[in-house]
Amino acid sequence: MVGDTLTDIGFARNAGMRMIYVGKSSEAGKLADARISDVSHIFEIIGERR
Length: 50
Fold this sequence. Notes:
This protein is α+β, with helices and mostly antiparallel strands. The protein contains 3 helices and 2 strands. 40% of the residues lie in helices and 12% in strands.
């Protein structure tokens, strides 16, 4: 996505997408459906195991 992160989250929600925020806590992270500190945890959030 491009542009302002908060705007991107708004567009994604309107399209029916779920948001996963990767990184330290921030305003954008508070609006996401899930928040992880590191991308290595992504499979825990989406329910897939490797």
